[in-house]
Amino acid sequence: MAGRIHIDLFTTLDGVAQAPGGPEEDTAGGFSFGGWQAPLIGSADGEQIMAGIRATDALLLGRRTYDIFAGYWPHQVDGPDAEIARKFDAIPKYVASRGEPDLGWRGSHLLGPDIAAEVAELRERHNEVHVIGSIDFAHTLVAQSLFDQLNLWVYPIVVGPGKRLFEPDGPPAGLRLLAPPEASERGAVLLRYAPTGEKPTTGDMTPGA
Predict the structure, then answer these.
(1) Domain that holds residue 188
(2) pLDDT value at position 169?
(3) Residue 65 maps to which CATH number?
(4) Which SUPFAM superfamilies match (predicted)?
(5) Looking at residues 158-185, what average pLDDT do you find?
């Protein structure tokens, strides 16, 4: 059985997925709400996130997220987040980049330009591959339906401008809900979706139509 590609994203209620973790994570476009997730994360969503990390046997990351992870997690193996750090350090890391980055973190591999072929190979090589953050790369995967499950944590905050997974000019896509939504004690909601591979359909609710 082929492995599955998961996309894990934390978003605001208005869909912004930019820089949930800290003020300097991604300031592109003058984004001033970096770290918006920190005051809102609770035990329930924390446990959901950890369950996903424990099931992961490979990471698939965009270049920016890889650089952030590589600069942080290898130095946390003896800290309070040691379980996450040791997991990430032990499993393979696959990086999508148009350049030739220095991938010094052990177990790191640069993907080739044919993303569809690379994803197909990862499905054969691993059971559960997770894309964490990597919003620009996630655009590509969603546009080409190169994923099996979108894990979307939606938090009760509105921040306005910022990077979104579903941009106004993005391609249409059909999704189906895989499980009932799960809410945390601080109002975050986990939504799990799979792509249908079909474009959205329309109807007419006009009386008598």
Answers:
(1) 4-17+41-162+177-193
(2) 85
(3) 3.40.430.10
(4) Dihydrofolate reductase-like
(5) 93
> Exposure pattern of 75-93 as b/e (b: 16+ CB <10 Å)?
ebeeeeeeebbebbeebbb
Q: Is 203 within the bounds of a domain? A: no
The residue ranges of DSSP E strands in the chain, in sequence order, are: 4-12, 58-62, 93-96, 108-110, 128-132, 149-155, 175-177, 182-183, 189-195
What radius of gyration, in Å, describes the C-alpha atoms of the chain? 18
Given a contact cutoff of 8 angstroms between Cβ atoms, the answer to whether 22 and 34 are in contact is yes
Indicate whether 208 pLDDT > 90. Answer: no
Q: What is the pTM of this model?
A: 0.93
Q: How many domains does the chain have?
A: 1
Round to whole Å and give the CA distance between 182 and 136. Answer: 26
Q: Half-sphere exposure (CA, 13 Å, Cβ side) for 130?
A: 19
Q: Rounded to whole angstroms, how far apart are CA atoms 209 and 205?
A: 7
* Residue 164, both tokens: 């979104």
Residue 161 has pLDDT above 70, yes or no: yes
**Which pLDDT tens digit goes with each residue over 93-112?**
999 998 888 899 999 999 99
50 is a domain residue: yes
Token digits of residue 2: 């082929």
